[in-house]
């Protein structure tokens, strides 16, 4: 009986061990299978240019989301994600009076309310000066990435910027770095970045990716880039970075105001962007399996696909916006003039030709200074003005960069070089958009857009008289261009005098000439036209 009991006991113990071990092992394997994938969602924006609020089309659909609806989009699409990030690819703190009245602090408050994690500085984010850029990012509670934003004296990463940051999600490590366009050196007032140097994006990216992959041992590399894909950007464009730098899984891009559909995959790097003004919001889903294989999928939400009522405003973000606008309202609503017609300032017009609004602005510059000629860049004109009363806020929105007018002395030869530099070309029968297009007053120009660059001017006269190389002129321009901005190096001459801000000069001028004067300028002959 004792022997039988021992054998039975031994048998029972064996069975128990098998029963104990097998289900546990099976359960562990099952759990691992269920949780093998790590899913990260990234919501992103770029080139918002302070379009903080929603806007609607005539049919009731949205034309842009605004930050309060963007926050709702983020909250409504978080499902199945182990971690959610919100990134911005630059040109965020500047653009409209909502931002400029407070030098970007209003936008910083909104970004903080939305909950952005990281951003890269666009060229226009430096418009208040490089020191202010870093303060705004700090106020917004975001990590400011700038691997190629260097202190000009030391050659090290500029104060307030991070070369890269890393995040841990489950057992996956993600590295994120930022690149700002070297074009910032002349696509903001050069004075704003006098202490900053922008290193080569490709060389910088190679160095950072090597650190992230080898030193930090990351599984995913993301680049926030304010580079764009404009051909004029040359080696600085995001395509060039993707083509020449191995190991970048994703580039979230800005600067060229391009949409997701404008991009193609390069060197296994997916590149995405959301156009401009929060007319589109981006979402990237990154899936990393148990073997660390990375899958990146980009999608977007187009505002015009939604009726305004389909997406509610996030209450907290909207309350922050409402508080800011209420404080600004008395200043912006001051009526300064009235116009009997719409004044055209849309991007597709002021960057391809002169408009009634560009003529008003350059005429205001002559009125302010008494100069011989006025030149301003079409890219500095940022909005139209509707028929009817004109408020101070509208004038600031048209000319939001805080530029002031200066006068410089140039020769006839230098004046011709400036005009030539600001003439657009024609490709496939279409005039190409040009941010540095010369909007003028005081001269008459005809040109051939199909001629080689450097020889497009057909005639250039002042009061009907041909301008000679040896002539001398006092030119009114903006302080941005007078320091070589938009590559107008020929205007980088000693300043003769300084005058009021462009928006102030415009307000004073339209108040002075009234509705009849505005209509007269609208009806005048073109100052710059294609030769017949």
Concise summary:
This protein is α/β, with parallel strands linked by helices and 532 residues long. Helix content is 33%, strand content 26%. The N terminus is likely disordered.
Report, as a whole number of angstroms, the end-to-end distance. Answer: 120 Å
Chain-averaged pLDDT: 92
In terms of DSSP E residues, the strand content is 25-35%
Strand order, biggest sheet? 6-5-4-1-14-15
- Helix content estimate: 25-40%
- 3D shape: globular
Contiguous uncertain segments of 5+ residues:
1-33
CATH architecture of the largest domain: 4-Layer Sandwich
Structural class: alpha/beta
Specify the CATH homologous superfamily of the largest domain. Answer: Metallo-dependent phosphatases
Describe this protein's structure:
- The protein has 532 residues and is an alpha/beta fold.
- It folds into 2 domains: 289 residues, 4-Layer Sandwich (Purple Acid Phosphatase, chain A, domain 2), CATH 3.60.21.10; 196 residues, 5'-Nucleotidase, C-terminal domain (5'-nucleotidase,  domain 2).
- The protein has 15 helices and 28 strands.
- The strands form 8 sheets. Strands 6-5-4-1-14-15 form a 6-stranded mixed β-sheet, covered by helices on one side. The protein has a 5-stranded mixed β-sheet with strand order 8-9-11-12-13, covered by helices on one side.
- Strand 24 and strand 25 form a beta hairpin.
- Helix 7 crosses helix 8 and helix 11 crosses helix 15.
- It starts with a helix and ends with a strand.
- The N terminus is likely disordered.
């Amino acid at each position: 009986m004792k022997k039988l009991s021992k054998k039975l006991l031994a048998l029972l113990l064996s069975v128990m061990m098998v029963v104990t071990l097998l289900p546990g092992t099976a359960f562990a394997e099952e759990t691992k299978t269920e949780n093998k994938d790590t899913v990260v969602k990234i919501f992103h924006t770029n080139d918002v240019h302070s379009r903080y609020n929603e806007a609607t089309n005539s049919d009731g659909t949205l034309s842009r989301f605004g930050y309060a609806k963007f926050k709702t989009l983020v909250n409504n699409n978080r499902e199945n994600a182990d971690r959610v990030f919100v990134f911005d690819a630059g040109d965020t703190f500047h653009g409209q009076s909502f931002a400029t009245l407070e030098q970007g602090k209003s936008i910083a408050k909104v970004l903080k309310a939305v909950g952005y994690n990281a951003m890269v500085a666009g060229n226009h984010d430096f418009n208040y000066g490089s020191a202010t850029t870093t303060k705004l990012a700090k106020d917004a509670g975001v990590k400011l990435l700038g691997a190629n934003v260097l202190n000009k004296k030391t050659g090290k990463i500029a104060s307030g910027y991070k070369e890269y940051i890393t995040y841990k999600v489950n057992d996956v490590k993600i590295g994120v770095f930022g690149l700002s366009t070297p074009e910032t050196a002349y696509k903001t007032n050069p004075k704003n970045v006098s202490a900053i140097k922008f290193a080569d994006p490709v060389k910088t990216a190679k160095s950072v990716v090597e650190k992230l992959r080898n030193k930090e041992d990351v599984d995913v590399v993301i680049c926030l880039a304010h580079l764009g894909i404009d051909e004029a950007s040359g080696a600085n464009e995001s395509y060039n970075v993707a083509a020449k730098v191995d190991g970048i899984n994703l580039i979230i891009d800005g600067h060229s105001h391009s949409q997701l559909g404008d991009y193609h995959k390069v060197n296994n790097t997916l590149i995405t962007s959301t156009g401009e003004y929060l007319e589109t919001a981006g979402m990237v889903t990154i899936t990393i399996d148990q073997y660390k294989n990375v899958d990146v999928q980009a999608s977007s939400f187009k505002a015009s696909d939604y009726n305004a009522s389909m997406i509610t405003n996030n209450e907290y973000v909207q309350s922050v916006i409402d508080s800011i606008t209420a404080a600004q309202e008395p200043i912006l609503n001051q009526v300064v003039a009235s116009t009997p017609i719409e004044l055209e300032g849309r991007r597709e017009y002021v960057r391809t030709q002169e408009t009634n609004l560009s003529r008003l602005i350059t005429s205001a510059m002559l009125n302010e200074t008494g100069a011989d000629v006025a030149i301003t860049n079409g890219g500095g004109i940022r909005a139209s003005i509707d028929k009817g009363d004109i408020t101070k806020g509208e004038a600031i929105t048209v000319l939001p960069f805080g530029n002031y007018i200066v006068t410089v002395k140039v020769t006839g030869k230098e004046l011709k070089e400036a005009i030539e530099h600001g003439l657009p070309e024609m490709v496939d029968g279409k005039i190409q958009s040009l941010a540095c297009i010369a909007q003028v007053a005081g001269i008459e120009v005809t040109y051939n857009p199909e001629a080689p660059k450097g020889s497009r001017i057909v005639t250039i006269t002042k009061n009907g008289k041909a301008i000679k190389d040896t002539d001398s002129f006092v030119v009114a321009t903006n302080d941005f261009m007078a320091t070589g901005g938009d590559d107008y190096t020929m205007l980088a001459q000693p300043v003769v005098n300084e005058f009021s801000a462009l928006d102030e000069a415009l307000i004073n001028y339209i108040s002075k000439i009234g509705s009849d004067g505005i209509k007269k300028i609208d009806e005048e002959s073109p100052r710059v036209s294609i030769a017949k």
